[in-house]
Amino acid sequence: MYINRKVVAFFIIVALLVGAGGTYAAMTVFDVSAPKLVKTETQKQDPEAPAPEPALDDVLEKFAKAYQIINQSYVEEVEGQKLLEGAIQGMLETLNDPYSVYMDQRTAKQFMDSLDSHFQGIGAEVSMTNGKVTIVAPFRDSPAEKAGLRPNDQIIRIDGEGIEGLSLHEAVLKIRGEKGTVVNLTIERPGVSEPIELAVTRDDIPIETIRTSLIERNGQKIALIEITSFSEGTAQDFAEALEEYEKQGITGLIIDVRGNPGGYLRSVQEIGHLLVPEGEPIVQIEGRNGKRERYISTLKQEKDYPIITLINKGSASASEILAAALKEAGGHDVVGETTFGKGTVQQALQMGDGSEIKLTLYRWLTSSGNNINEVGVEPTIPVKQPDFFYVAPINVEETLKYDMMGEQIKNAQIMLKGLGLEPGRVDGYFGEQTKNAVTAFQRTNDLPATGEIDEKTAQTLQEKIIEAVRDKENDNQLNTAIELILQR
């Protein structure tokens, strides 16, 4: 409560400082023409001792003085509102927390719209990591995923313009836009030496958070429930789907949270009550004082069928909570790759004028009390996808042909191999066998059989790879989960 009173008092006084039409009220006038030297007695202080916390009055007085000096004396005219918002952003930047951000009125509205039934954009969760706009996860089947964006990609240019110095939400405003328009992103990808250029066509991004299918194999029925994010109605939709499948007599359940960037904490807790054995913690929440609150499952009857969770590097936040709970409290297998590692909880705090601060208020810990922040949840059964699932899109600035060498050729070789053609090598050298594989691909897809990779061939190759990634027959992680359930 003491913290809240300080914050409220701060912004009440700032509101008094910034008046309509550039006028100021309740402001002390400071003489900034020349500094005055005042002789004061000094006390010896331990240089190792931390500086004492300044009194709130001193903080506000210092802020007001800095505001007035800049507003009245800077060589060019400045906007008071920008100074105020810059001060708020500066405070948040000192936290070194990519998830604590300030949103002005426009950005806050767009953020709330994104929690609605749909919004327009590219469909990707982003954060600010080490000063760079970073992809947490592209939404499933979104323009971002189809264009080839991946978790941990770092955006360095938007439509050819560098974004250094932009806040996260300033960058997001540039990325989002109307359906049908194109945004060109330049990204840096870990392990890839050259920047990658991606053209992403914006679209309606539906918030359809639950997808279901029934897998029938060897006389057994296995329910597959994909959770793309944890929104307001996700838990209810999940409960209804699970109840319907249980009526059909399923012998196993696969929960797919791959590429799920998270969402509402309450939503994942409600799903936890449907799956985690009674008396076991679904998640633990830790505040700044170190006090923990455990959320205990109330499930009366433990499930009599195996449950397997699918995870990957794009599984973050709430999806990590569910995977960890099923792994630690439920004793169920988790298949795939180590998750993103976001172990904090944010809440949007209203500033009174339509703007908001999305602030980290808590850490969340797994059922067993493990902190996964920047670590992730490890699978019990690690399984990687085929190499072509991870390959970067091909950028053809010049036609790729025989005897050339480079990373783009290496990507093409991985794609060809994934499509059942044999390029002979995957080291980036365009040899005779690669030429033959390209020719075979072109003939199969009604393209001029030149044996060279031009823009049209590269585009078609990318489209076929996306189709191959969508084909469940190629999904090593899903097929491993199915086999595990059949064995039991």
List the helices and strands and how they pair.
Blueprint: H1 2-17, H2 56-73, H3 80-93, E1 101-103, H4 105-113, E2 118-121, E3 124-129, E4 132-138, H5 143-147, E5 154-158, E6 161-162, H6 168-175, E7 182-188, E8 196-201, E9 203-206, E10 210-217, E11 220-227, H7 234-247, E12 252-256, H8 265-275, E13 281-286, E14 292-296, E15 307-311, H9 318-328, E16 334-336, E17 344-350, E18 356-365, E19 381-382, H10 407-418, H11 432-444, H12 455-470, H13 476-487
Parallel strand pairs: 11-12, 12-15, 15-16, 16-19
Antiparallel strand pairs: 1-18, 2-9, 3-4, 4-5, 5-6, 5-7, 7-8, 10-11, 13-14, 13-18, 17-18
Helix pairs in contact: 7-8, 8-9, 10-12
Structural write-up:
The chain is α+β, with helices and mostly antiparallel strands and 488 residues long. The chain has four domains: 81 residues, no CATH class; 89 residues, Pdz3 Domain (Roll); 174 residues, Alpha-Beta Complex (2-enoyl-CoA Hydratase, Chain A, domain 1); 85 residues, Orthogonal Bundle (Muramoyl-pentapeptide Carboxypeptidase, domain 1). The chain is built from 13 helices and 19 strands. The strands form four sheets. Strands 3, 4, 5, 6, 7 and 8 form a six-stranded antiparallel β-sheet that branches. It has a six-stranded mixed β-sheet with strand order 10-11-12-15-16-19, sandwiched between helices. Strand 17 and strand 18 form a beta hairpin. Helix 7 packs parallel to helix 8 and helix 10 packs across helix 12. The chain is globular, with a radius of gyration of 27 Å.
